[in-house]
Amino acid sequence: MKLVIDESRCKGCNLCVLVCPYGIFREGTELNSRGIVAPVLDRPERCTNCRLQALYGRMLCGVCHMICPDQAISWVEEKPFEPHKVEVEF
Amino acid sequence: MIAPDWFREDRLPHIYCTGCGNGTIINCTLAAVEEMGWKRDETVFVSGIGCSSRAPGYILTDSLHTTHGRALAFATGVKMARPDLHVVVFTGDGDLAAIGGNHFIHACRRNVDMTVICMNNHIYGMTGGQGSPTTPPGAISSTTPYGASEPAFDLAELAVAAGANYVARWTSYHVKELTKAVAAGMQTPGLSFIEARTQCPTNYGRHNKLRSVSAMIEHLRSHAILVAKRDRLVAEGKPIPEGAFTVGELVRRNRPAMGVQR
Description:
heterodimer; A: Alpha-Beta Plaits; two-stranded antiparallel ribbon; B: Rossmann fold; 8-stranded mixed sheet
């Protein structure tokens, strides 16, 4: 699972920054196309729900999802990792 | 976990200001509805007028957006006509305590089987921040520019005295506890009243030195004391801190309820 912020809904209240126990959300610095400073994700793979939701079969933690007044935080399914070729230019 | 199919996705993002707590209360209510396993065509959301009362407009069920303060009167009618429906009422403090105070105490007295969620933001947010009956003493609003001089209504205690079957109070910071309280209220037959104190940074915080959302949430969090702690302080004879309000389950009882399907 992957943590995403829907920037078309976020109004930049930074409540997620306040509540996340892992400090994954950081206050943003740049305006987006709607004129809102949305929070940015700092290494979202640390989120317990991303890692263990499939294993436990239920929502873990999820405080940011519940407190977000704009319903902007959600988890989306991720494709399993596929190895791909990387071309390195010298 | 809130299923996204309860939201009317085409109406989102909603009109609430940045950092408004009403969206959080909608999340908690829908999580509780999801936990109860109610069907979408068996649930009715009723609301009056105000910021809080726009909530059913973002939920994909049948809903009633009624006149100012009369949400409980309409909801009683819905429950009497169709006792098989689950009725949830969203109101604000100006809606429930000021203009609809009479409907509120009589709905509690009759103990109609529904769940009432009051989003108490201490102010009339939609019309420009006028003082409401729940504005704390000393708070500055546009109709109380020198600080509110009247004592405030304690809505949860009022519901206990009027006879509701389940009464709880939480804030929009305590999301997990609020979800549990709403679910417990939905399971209880008879009127269940859940007061949710929310932040209003735009119209309340701006005049009261709580301009940022985090300052307002921190103010709510630090002024909430649990019922057990309040009881302990009273038993020890210690003073209760100034401006503190109790949170937690205030009453759960089995008075005869009206409109329960047999």
